[in-house]
Amino acid sequence: MKLLVRNLSRKMTEHEIRVLFSEHGDVTVCNLVLDQETGLSKGFAFVEMPNTSEAKAALSALDHTEVKQSKIRVKLAKN
To answer: The whole model's pTM is what?
Structure first.
């Protein structure tokens, strides 16, 4: 299941996002979207979790939580 994570702190790393979601299950892909010109985070990422129930648990647990002084939003990504 592919999740879209929005409103991330610009200082958050791909590794930190992976660790955050791994607390709820297996993460196969974590892709922090970067600005091509600056190389800095655009504030959103995609996380893929193969187990649907784990992905739903992560979505429920993490949506609208504060991470690094930023309230993140998690939802299903549209393919």
So the answer is: 0.94
Q: How far apart are CA 55 and CA 35, in angstroms?
A: 27
Q: In CATH, what is the architecture of 2-63?
A: 2-Layer Sandwich (3.30)
For residue 77, the 8-state DSSP code is P
Domain coordinates of the chain in residue numbers? 2-63
pLDDT digits (tens, 9 = 90+) for 3-50: 999 999 999 999 999 999 999 999 999 999 999 999 999 999 999 999
φ, ψ of residue 38 in degrees (nearest 5): -100, -20
**d(Cα 66, Cα 41) in Å, to the nearest integer?**
18
